[in-house]
Amino acid sequence: MLPMDVTLVRWPEESARLSLLQAEGAPRLLLVRGDTEPPMPIDELEDWVRIPADDRDVRARAATLAPRAAARLRPQVHDDDLLRFRDQWIALSPLEGAMARPLVDRFGAVVARDVVSRSAWPAGPPTRNALDVHMLRLRRRARLVGLEVRTVRARGYLLQAV
Amino acid sequence: MLPMDVTLVRWPEESARLSLLQAEGAPRLLLVRGDTEPPMPIDELEDWVRIPADDRDVRARAATLAPRAAARLRPQVHDDDLLRFRDQWIALSPLEGAMARPLVDRFGAVVARDVVSRSAWPAGPPTRNALDVHMLRLRRRARLVGLEVRTVRARGYLLQAV
DNA sequence: CTGGATCCTTCACCAGTGCGAAACAGTCAC
DNA sequence: GTGACTGTTTCGCACTGGTGAAGGATCCAG
Predict the structure, then answer these.
(1) Full 3-state SS string of chain B
(2) In this model, does residue B29 exceed pLDDT 80?
(3) What's the CA–C1' distance between B153 and C17, in Å?
(4) Which of these, A86, A131, B37, B107, has the minimum number of CB atoms within 10 Å of its CB?
(5) pLDDT over 90 at B128, yes or no
(6) Could you tell me the pLDDT band of residue B79, with boundaries at 50, 70 and 90?
(7) Of B37, B64, B150, the CB nearest to A40
(8) Which of A32, A36, A57, A83 should we substitute to test contact with B (largest number of B Cβ atoms within 10 Å)?
(9) How many Å does it take to go from CA B129 to C1' C19?
(10) Sites in chain A below the pLDDT cut of 70
(11) Full-model pTM
């Protein structure tokens, strides 16, 4: 069956809806009416198929878009020193990289303070305060690439797109 | 007419040729024989169309791939003394050429200071500072062809398009 | 609802260090 | 000599990691 996250859009009837989807970066597959010229896709999350079309073709194209969208949705940490998100990247200090790793690994979910702390200082943080201060710094950096670290009081932190 | 840089590949007859094109990162459009399942594209420089197809459709898909490929063009170093990028080129000194090579080979990724240093001075840099100074000079040159060397503190350097 | 405890944010400061940049000098080719 | 290439020194900024402290936010006991 069709991957749920790819939206089918009738072209050119639903061009308004298409603009909306483009703006929010959602993957979309245009169903182009037989006699119409397909529009030029504005990014790699868009594709089109001329209808009537074989159902397998529609699925194949949707299945191509879905993982692309998924990959763009998640940030990545390279070698503990680069934080990538949506074609942007920033350098992280070694400590920040170590803190970011568990947050990226569990993107969108709460990560216990303890886990972040141990990732940065396996032998324990130097000060009770250290984690907070460095989280502040990581926060400011992450914002530069559209990422936000949110606090869940008494639980931990959560990394998400702004 | 068709953008020249997009290669048309008959599928599945020319699958060997496809692997070659994939390896070298060339944009390619698969002409899928009517009864065949299209393969899953391995990157966004690949697309497919089921034949027989409207010529306009083939062109539209090729026209989508071409600019993507153009945006992904990598710089090249010739004979350690010429740096090419997007129809522009500059001369490099032998030392700069040697420094540029690993950066170009790993375009867009972090290259350790050490690697750049050893490429320029296999026996070790003459001074602790030499790499920094020559990197400054390479930087200025690279900017002339739209390339930027970015520093990742305590790690290395990264070459990217401006 | 009120005051305190707890958790967290934010700021200011410090010491150590990596790196940028300029300036200058030596060498070599033409 | 002139200019390109390379080596060397020096200065200083900005980043990093650590620390203390002030204060805000939230929760809870009473």
Answers:
(1) CCCCCCEEEEECCCHHHHHHHHHCCCCEEEEEECCCCCCCCCCCCEEEEEECCCHHHHHHHHHHHHHHHHHCCCCEEECCCEEEECCEEEECCHHHHHHHHHHHHCCCCEEEHHHHHHHHCCCCCCCCCHHHHHHHHHHHHHHCCCEEEEEECCCEEEEEEC
(2) yes
(3) 11
(4) B37
(5) no
(6) confident
(7) B64
(8) A57
(9) 9
(10) 1-4
(11) 0.78
Residue numbers in B near A87 (CB within 8 A) = none
**A79–B110 C-beta distance less than 8 A:** yes
Structure tokens at A62: 């949707």
| pLDDT score of B3 more than 50 | no
Mean pLDDT of B51-75: 91
Do the Cβ atoms of B64 and A94 come within 8 Å? no
Gap between the Cα atoms of B24 and A131, Å rounded:
45
What residues form DSSP beta bridges with A159? Answer: A149
What does the longest C-alpha to C-alpha distance in chain B come to? 66
